[in-house]
Amino acid sequence: MSDEACPASGHLMLISPERVFYAGLLGRPRRRTSGAYSIYVSLHGQLRVTIEDGQAQTGAMAFVQPYVPHNVDCDSRSVICLVIEPETVLPMAVLGARIAGSADGTLAERVRQAHRSLVTAGRREGFTTSEFDNLFFGEALPARRIDRRITAALARLNDITGAAVTAEDCAVAANLSQSRFLHLFKDETGVSFRALRAWKRARHLLHFVNSEINLAHLAQDIGYPDSTHFSHSIRRFYGLQPRAIFSGSRDLAIWRSDPHAVNAAEFRQGRP
Known about the structure:
Elements lengths: L11 E4 L3 E7 L11 E6 L4 E5 L4 E4 L1 E4 L5 E5 L3 E7 L8 H8 L5 H16 L7 H9 L10 H11 L8 H7 L4 H12 L3 H12 L10 H7 L5 H12 L3 H6 L5 E4 L7 H5 L4
Parallel strand pairs: 1-9
Antiparallel strand pairs: 1-2, 2-8, 3-6, 3-8, 4-5, 4-7
Helix pairs in contact: 5-6
């Protein structure tokens, strides 16, 4: 993590290819549909998460499965959200049950305390997934084993500085036919290549939300064919327009797992 101090607001984000911790403004989003496991924790008071089918979770903490449309309301303007990429862990029914059954707020308070410790002390760049899990959950979440050919494709999808990734390219690299690759990809990850690529593109936005950057250029750099697709995708996954996300993230400190992660200026260097 960087040497920059956490802002007085306490707004910060830890981000790696496998995890995200966000403590910041909730905004006024419409329905959102994250491609990851989402764990919401209220900083103060309670929150209410309403699933598309009408089910609701009310309390200090809520858990939502990947690709499930939902709305979030909170007593305070800010909220904590933990994002766990589903292809990196075993199915999280047990953790979800723990969260749903955590009526005494113990797990929620652990997450809040971890946030306070980060705000007070800060940390270095380069945190590991295990460190992240132990900080917020008190244990490493059980890792999912993925076919190495699909692992290679996932690495390409997680690369925020790479060229556009196609199923055809990944199939060739895996020495598979495209149809066989797509079948294997869904078997291994639980979701289609197209759906996961759409989520990863939207997720790449998070690396730059506190930067002064041209959004049209950013959309092109992270793989969108045009600004319209970019705007629609971001609104689908986050419930907010890109400009609203950037506006609410001006005082957000971003600490990355990769000490060599590029900043916004470097990201644009050498791009057409």
